[in-house]
Specification:
Elements lengths: L1 E6 L2 E6 L6 H8 L18 E4 L2 E4 L12 E3 L20 H8 L9 H14 L5 H8 L10 H14 L46 E3 L19 H5 L15 E7 L5 E7 L1 H5 L3 E5 L30 E2 L5 E7 L2 H9 L2 E6 L6 H4 L25 E9 L2 H6 L3 E9 L11 E6 L5 E5 L4 H12 L6 E4 L16 H11 L3 E4 L2 H7 L6 E9 L5 E13 L5 H10 L10 H4 L3 E9 L13 H18 L4 H8 L29 H12 L1 H4 L3 H4 L7 E11 L9 E8 L5 E5 L8 H13 L6 E4 L17 H29 L12 E3 L2 E3 L5 E3 H11 L6 E7 L7 E11 L5 E11 L6 H20 L29 E7 L21 H13 L10 H12 L1
Parallel strand pairs: 1-5, 6-32, 7-18, 16-17, 20-21, 24-25, 31-32
Antiparallel strand pairs: 1-2, 3-4, 3-5, 7-11, 8-10, 8-12, 9-11, 13-21, 14-19, 15-16, 15-18, 19-20, 22-30, 23-24, 23-29, 26-27, 27-28, 30-31
Helix pairs in contact: 2-5, 4-5, 11-12, 14-16, 16-25, 21-22, 22-23, 24-25
Bound molecules: FE2/S2 (inorganic) cluster (2 copies).
One FE2/S2 (inorganic) cluster binds next to loops.
């Protein structure tokens, strides 16, 4: 049909199929890649555009519906104000506000949010926060926790009303002694819910207890805007599939409808004969190469148990065949024409059944490669046995032994950008893989044998990533497109649908965990034991390392007191087993949230049973600075363990600051606060959890960086590190800027491309700011030294005394002598490149850490429980974090807010389940609920700085620790509210109701 409409102010007319969606026309016909998509079923809101000024989801609008109407996309809004001679109007105030408030993380939802905000502010120039949250509620964001987007819209509203707005951070933070509970000063503790403004109030900036005078710093410690923010807020084509290529094919995968079966025969003749089909591949067409899909360093610390295509399927969603066709519709039709005969096999869905003698063997392929103690004949992907001290003796010395069994669910990373890849042969017959991955260098190394290509013939390009959270630390779909490009010689794109994301992606390992703790009457822990049964699903990707971290990074927190502190008794055993469910894998926190749910619920039970103060009891037994990390001599990820002393631990201060901000002393054990006058069915509760994580993997993770000086005194910073929306490119640029004495806009960051950027292990294990940051500092110091040597020579000319380069200082784009003379970086650059003793000033740095300094945190939660229905409303989350020195308070607090929000889903509503036939029950965002803007509690972030001496700027990790404490703090708050003692998350109303019934009976 012929269709006409007004697009961004211009008339458009075109011939398109009447069944096309507005989304496909805008992206594929018109190349408007600012319109994103995350589900194509109308649930995520990433595809929002304005139709006659009203936000609509373009994926559910059919093209005939827009005939004669006005469409606005993000491309209609602001240009970059500094585009040379071209006269541009600059960014829209809404876009500007999103940048200034740090509202952009991965930026995948940002164009939709900006358009929704534009529509709201046209209708209502002075919206309340609640109205802003309502307006944004249709756009799901998995990164931010919505605080900063909400604040951005309120700020933009003020700007559009012509009001002056303060800089987001007017004054730099100064050292603070004590962070009070700011909102609770005015809050009536006896008030009913909803009486207070507090529940929806937002703070853009975190509160901070700083230890470094920021006046002495040029960039590190300052709330710099993200280096990629402008292009993201403009919806520029920055993501993997925001490109067009002539002759590009669309890939689709036939997935298994059965959880466990042999493929007896597969007939693809009809599919291959379909016009428009370029290739159909089955297991018979591909080299049979066994590998692991886990994106990890060499050697992969886990079993090799996967093929690109196999003659057996092991879960509903497993791969059966690949198709490449001219269009998506043809590819779908080709899938329908593939005839497969299956021989059904017994199904194992329960991990306990997997371990029963005689259970069907899920991996019976002769190529299976064991790692450490994996044993395919017992469905065992990994086995861990760690004994520290003498645990049995510790139990004998205890006055009381307390036991409990806990359970955590399988959950999805649910990044809004699905897995996406584009492959093609370049002009040198090298295979280019443009992919949304956290681990570009691992993708190249691991795929080379699978594709039967040498590493040097593969180039992996990582554009912007629309969120990953561990789900993209996997070589998940790159092989599909690559095999099809090899088969056809043509570019191929492949992208998961949201249904594939749920059925055939990776998830957090579900676990059943038994705790047993020996305690003296005074609260001294004498022995602590955790026994985990972890379900890796059909493949063992990350089986050993995720589950190892469950014990390693949670059980290390409590060493005991007195003599037990000197020699703690800790046991962690785990069996990681195969089942016929979708594979588990890496998810932010990497096994540690699974450890802290049982550990911190158990600590709460012990403190209550012994009638001890829950904070004092925890701190009495907790690890301290100067002590040995108890697991450091017992277990490490893929390397032999080596002793590590904890250099810094701000846990006591986190507990004090967090308790103060949460109003703990006024609320805990205060019956007046717990009850709601006139509403006897409601109860308030407060709970806490102490947590720790790690920073990178010692002796294993390596990051590299190179820095090159340009003619104008700016620098190219090339990093292999992978910014998946966290802001790591920005904090790396800040570290370079600090050393080189330039503003951050003089550092041009590029990440990452295996042809151009130095090696980096990728984005995982909370390592980028620390490991890659140290590499950047090393490279910057190399460049700075060359600059100073030249500067010393130039500053000594004209009759001045010779000066040593070691006396010089770099600041304000110049190099200064102690007596105040200076020369600009631009003059030095011109001299070095054009005038005298010409050289390219550049340096490479790389860094591997011998330690993994843990960040620590105290998490507090406040809840309201309806004891008649079991409904729990989390009203407030306060997290006080020691993540070392904070390089960028805006991006770091965004990590904490977004992490707490994901963790809140883990606590109360997210769960992936299967029916008795192994069919997944949650396949879309209707059934799998993630939090929207209007559902959020108040979030408060506090940073308690310490200076970690193993890093030049004193940093530790911040990205993963926010995942760890929310679930147990909420569980403890529910217990505090109503006595419901829950051992399993998520805390659904039904589970709370049943626990209440049990308590009351
Ligand atoms: S709502 Fe359209 S892609 Fe998700
Ligand atoms: S910033 Fe919203 S989805 Fe990433």
């Amino acid at each position: 049909m012929y269709i006409e409409f007004n697009l961004n102010g211009s008339q458009v007319g075109m011939e398109v199929s009447a069944g096309s969606t507005l989304l496909s026309v805008l992206r594929e016909h018109l190349g408007l890649f600012g319109v994103k998509h995350g589900c194509e079923t109308g649930e995520c809101g990433a595809c929002a555009v304005l139709l006659d000024g009203v936000p609509v989801n373009a994926c559910v609008i059919l093209i005939p519906q827009v005939q004669g109407r006005n469409i606005e996309t993000i491309e209609s809004m602001g240009e970059h104000p500094e585009q040379g001679w071209r006269l541009t109007k600059g960014l829209d105030p809404i876009q500007q506000a999103f940048i200034e408030t740090g509202a952009i993380q991965c930026g995948y939802c940002t164009p939709a949010m900006v358009l929704v905000a534009r529509s709201l502010l046209k209708r209502n120039p002075s919206p309340s926060e609640e109205e802003v949250r309502d307006a944004l509620s249709g756009v799901l964001c998995r990164c931010t926790g919505y605080i900063k987007p909400v604040q951005a819209v309120l700020r933009a509203a003020a700007m559009l009303r012509g009001e002056d707005v303060e800089p987001v951070w007017g004054a730099l933070p100064s050292p603070t002694e004590f962070i009070p509970a700011p909102d609770d000063g005015d809050r009536d503790l006896t008030g009913a819910p909803g009486d207070s403004e507090v529940l929806t109030s937002t703070r853009v900036m975190p509160q901070m207890k700083t230890i470094v005078d920021l006046e002495t710093r040029q960039s590190v410690g300052r709330p710099e805007p993200k280096v990629d923010a402008v292009k993201l807020v403009q919806g520029k084509p920055a993501f993997t599939l925001d490109v067009e290529m002539r002759g590009m094919l669309v890939a689709k995968v036939l997935h298994s409808p059965f959880p466990h079966a042999k493929i007896k025969s597969i007939d693809v003749s009809e599919a291959r004969a379909l016009p428009g089909v370029a290739a159909v591949l089955t297991w018979e067409d591909l080299p049979r190469v066994i590998y692991s899909t886990a994106g990890q360093s060499d050697p992969i610390p886990g079993p090799l148990d996967s093929f690109s295509l196999d003659n057996k399927v092991r879960f509903v969603g497993d791969r059966v065949a690949f198709v490449a066709a001219e269009t998506e519709e043809i590819a779908e039709e080709a899938l329908n024409r593939i005839k497969v005969e299956y021989e059904l096999l017994p199904v194992i869905l329960d991990p306990e059944e997997a371990m029963i003698e005689g259970a069907t063997q899920i991996h019976d392929e002769h190529e299976f490669v064991d790692f450490a103690d994996s044993d395919a004949s017992r469905n065992l992907a990994a086995e861990i046995r760690i004994d520290i001290g003498d645990v049995d003796k510790g139990f004998k010395e205890a006055d009381t032994i307390i036991e409990g069994t806990y359970q955590v669910p399988k959950v999805s990373q649910a990044a809004i950008e699905p897995h996406a890849v584009l492959t093609y042969w370049d002009e040198d017959d090298r295979l280019v893989i443009r992919t949304s991955t956290q681990v570009p260098f691992h993708v190249r190394r691991q795929l080379a044998p699978v594709l039967d290509l040498p590493i040097k013939r593969i180039r992996v390009v990582k554009p912007r990533i629309g969120g990953g959270f561990g789900g993209k630390q996997e070589v998940l779909i790159e092989d599909v497109a690559a095999h099809l490009t090899i088969a056809t010689g043509r570019p191929v794109r492949y992208e998961y649908t949201r249904e594939e994301e749920f059925a055939a992606s990776r998830s957090r390992h579900p676990m059943k965990i038994k705790m047993k703790t020996g305690v003296k009457k005074d609260g001294t822990i004498t022995a602590n034991e955790m026994i985990a049964l972890s379900d890796t699903g059909a493949y063992g990707c990350h089986a050993l390392t995720v589950t190892g971290n469950t014990g390693h990074k949670s059980m290390a927190l409590y060493v005991g007191d007195g003599p037990y502190r000197e020699s703690p008794n800790i046991r962690f055993y785990a069996d990681v087993v195969y089942t016929n469910t979708s594979p588990s894998g890496a998810y932010r926190g990497y096994g540690v949230p699974q450890g802290f749910w049982p550990l911190e619920r158990h600590m709460e039970k012990i403190s209550r049973q012994l009638e001890l103060d829950p904070i004092e009891f925890r701190l009495k037994n907790a690890l301290r600075a100067g002590e040995l990390h108890p697991f450091s001599t017992a277990w490490s990820e893929g390397r032999e363990p080596r002793p590590e002393i904890i250099n810094t631990c701000g846990l006591v201060e986190c507990a004090e600051q967090g308790a103060s901000a949460a109003g703990w002393s006024e609320k805990f054990r205060n019956p007046v606060w717990h009850e709601i006058p006139g509403q006897p069915h409601l109860r308030r509760g407060i709970g806490l959890a102490l947590v720790m994580q790690g920073t990178a993997i010692p002796y294993l993770d390596m990051g590299g960086a190179s820095i090159k000086m340009n003619d104008d005194g700016s620098f190219n910073l090339l990093v292999g590190a992978t910014d998946l929306g966290t802001g790591s490119d920005t904090v790396l640029a800040q570290q370079a800027a600090e050393v080189l004495g330039v503003p951050i806009e003089d550092i041009i960051v590029y990440s990452s491309d295996t042809d151009f950027t130095p090696f980096d292990k990728g984005a995982y294990a909370s390592s980028t700011t620390y490991i890659s940051g140290a590499a950047v500092v090393q490279a910057a110091q190399g460049v700075a030294e060359r600059i100073k040597i030249r500067a010393a020579k130039m500053l000594s000319e004209g009759g001045f005394d010779p000066i040593s380069h070691t006396e010089l200082r770099m600041a304000n784009r110049s190099v200064f002598t102690p007596d105040g003379r200076s020369i600009s970086l631009k003059d030095i650059a011109l001299s070095s490149l054009h005038h005298e003793d010409q050289e390219q000033i550049m340096a490479v740095g790389s860094y591997m850490s011998p330690v993994s300094p843990p960040p620590f945190a105290a998490q507090f939660a406040e809840v309201l429980v309806d004891i008649e229905t079991g409904q729990v409303q989390v009203e407030r989350l306060v997290m006080a974090v020691d993540a070392g020195i904070i390089v960028n308070p805006l991006t770091a607090s965004g990590q904490v807010e977004g992490g707490m929000t994901q963790a809140l889903g883990y606590a109360v509503c997210e769960e992936m389940r299967y029916d008795q036939d192994g069919q997944p029950l949650e396949l879309d965002f209707r059934d799998y609920h993630i939090f929207a803007a209007h559902e959020m509690p108040e979030l408060q972030t506090i940073f308690v700085e310490t200076f970690e001496p193993s890093h030049p700027f004193g940093v530790k990790a911040v990205a993963e620790i926010p995942m760890d404490g929310v679930a147990p703090a909420v569980g403890n708050a529910v217990l505090d509210a109503c006595g419901a003692d829950l051992h399993e998350i998520p805390l659904t109303p039904e589970r709370i109701w049943r626990a209440l019934k049990k308590t009351n009976s």
